[in-house]
Structures are given as structure tokens and as C-alpha cells.
Design a protein that fits this description.
- By secondary structure, the protein is α/β, with parallel strands linked by helices.
- The protein has helices spanning about 40-45, 60-70, 75, 105-110, 120-125, 145-155, 200-205, 235-245, and strands at about 10, 15-20, 25-30, 35, 55-60, 90, 115-120, 135, 140-145, 155-160, 165-170, 175-180, 215-220, 220-225.
- It is built from 8 helices and 14 strands.
- The strands form 4 sheets. A 6-stranded mixed β-sheet has the order 7-5-8-10-14-13. A 4-stranded mixed β-sheet has the order 6-12-11-9.
- The chain is globular.
- The two termini are about 30 Å apart.
Length: about 250
């Protein structure tokens, strides 16, 4: 892909190309990859944290990554299997995110110097969030009750993707699996947010992926973006600077 005047050098692998239902290749790709451009060093100082003291962290949504994997929750939602697809789903603890689990955002924030922790670390030790002044939450759609409480009690959270904290799961670390407990129309169709969270911003923002008029809305413990930023996170300097300066 031509990077032009973009923030990062952008490239794709041919194996990541998307295909139509008929099997024809398209011009779209499942994954983008990014590299720093030496000529943009001054910009990286402006929008990144790798060159200065900071106390921020972002959360990699391992549970959501697992839920979207094949033979997981979404096979059930599509009617391809029964409730067995909601129970004892393998935790995909290798770092292979997709669009649904904030792949572009993870790559960009890492390039800009932000450290990260995972859902698993928070669930096992929720006090870990107390070590950080600012927590950046990505598309953590599926979380444990322990993680939900830890994040919503932290005083400074950037909710960077709508539809976060949407459904409750439980994790079994002996089996290395997750199971859906409540939310996403389960176990009853009328149940949406599994925590009945008053700040849930899933609708209508989850499917706003062009982010043409993005803005942050303030809530009790931080601010929430009103669109799903995967298609702009690697090219919107103002968004990245806002994240840094919050």
C-alpha cells in the first residue's frame, strides 16, 4: 500500500487479502501492518509516549479475541451451533488480533511507545490497574466481572472503542477457556449489556467505522469515543494527540 503522507509506513501481506462470497479477490485486506517513518520522528514525539516519562497503559482484549475466533461465540450467534459454542472456548493468548479485537490500534499504540497489559492480568490481579495513571481500553467486549469492576473503578480511562464491557464471561485458567455468563442476548433475548452498565455506548456507535465526526464524551471515570477507530487510528494525528494529552 502507498503510505503517501500518512503517519506510518503501511504494508499488507498477500495472504491477508479478502475475498468475495464467490471466492474472487478484493482490494481489501484482513490485516494492515505499520512501521515508523524516520522523517516523522518529530511527529512521533508529539503524538507518542516512547520518548518521555509517562504512566499510561492499554489493555489488549484477549477474551474478545478468543470469543471471535472460529468455533467460538459467533458461531452460536450465527446459528451454526448450540450453546456448546458459548462454553469452554479456548483462550487465544497468543497476540494475533483482528479488526474485532483492535488489531490496528494495538499495533499503532505499541509503535508509539505505550506499554500494554491483557485482560488475563487484570482478572488475576485487578490491583495492577492502580499502578497506572491512565488506562486505554480497546474493544474489550467480553470481560470478567472482576475486570469490569477494576476498569470502572479506575479514575481515568479512555474508552477508545464502543461496545466495550458488554458481556460477562468467566475464565477457567486450568482449562485455559472462557464461558459466556450474561449479555449479548444471553441467556435471555432481552439481555443486552451483561452488566447493565449505564454508560454502555454500543448503539449506535459500534458500527460507525468511518469516524468522520469523532468526539469523546465524558463519563464518570473517563471519556468514550463515539466511533470504532480501527480505520483511522493509523492516520489521524489529532486523535492520537488527544489520547496522549488526556
Amino acid at each position: 500500500l502507498a503510505s503517501g503522507d500518512s503517519i506510518f509506513e503501511t504494508f499488507v501481506y498477500s495472504g491477508d487479502r479478502k475475498y468475495t462470497d464467490e471466492g474472487a479477490p478484493t482490494t481489501e485486506f484482513e490485516q494492515r501492518h505499520f512501521l515508523l517513518k524516520p522523517e516523522n520522528n518529530d511527529l512521533y514525539h508529539e503524538i507518542g509516549v516512547g520518548f518521555e516519562q509517562h504512566n499510561s497503559v492499554f489493555v489488549v482484549p484477549i477474551y474478545t479475541m478468543s470469543a471471535y475466533a472460529e468455533h467460538g461465540f459467533y458461531n452460536y450467534y450465527r446459528g451454526e451451533c448450540g450453546t456448546e459454542c458459548l462454553k469452554d472456548i479456548p483462550i487465544r493468548d497468543e497476540l494475533r488480533p483482528t479488526f474485532e479485537s483492535s488489531a490496528n490500534t494495538i499495533k499503532v499504540l505499541r509503535l508509539l511507545g505505550y506499554p500494554y497489559i491483557t485482560d488475563i492480568e487484570i482478572d488475576k490481579d485487578p490491583s495492577i490497574l492502580n499502578l497506572f495513571d491512565k488506562v486505554i481500553l480497546l474493544h474489550s467486549e467480553y470481560v470478567t466481572k472482576t475486570e469490569f469492576e477494576a476498569i470502572t473503578k479506575h479514575p481515568k480511562v479512555i474508552y477508545l472503542h464502543p461496545n466495550a464491557l458488554y458481556a460477562e464471561i468467566k475464565a477457567d485458567y486450568e482449562k485455559n477457556t472462557i464461558t459466556l455468563v450474561r449479555g449479548h442476548n444471553y441467556p435471555s433475548p432481552e439481555i443486552q449489556n451483561g452488566f447493565d452498565w449505564k454508560f454502555d455506548n454500543t448503539h449506535p456507535f459500534e458500527y460507525n467505522t468511518d469516524c468522520e465526526n469523532w468526539k469523546f464524551d465524558k463519563i464518570d471515570n473517563g471519556m468514550m469515543l463515539n466511533c470504532y477507530p480501527e480505520n483511522i487510528i493509523f492516520q489521524d494525528k489529532r486523535l492520537l494527540k488527544t489520547i496522549k494529552e488526556y
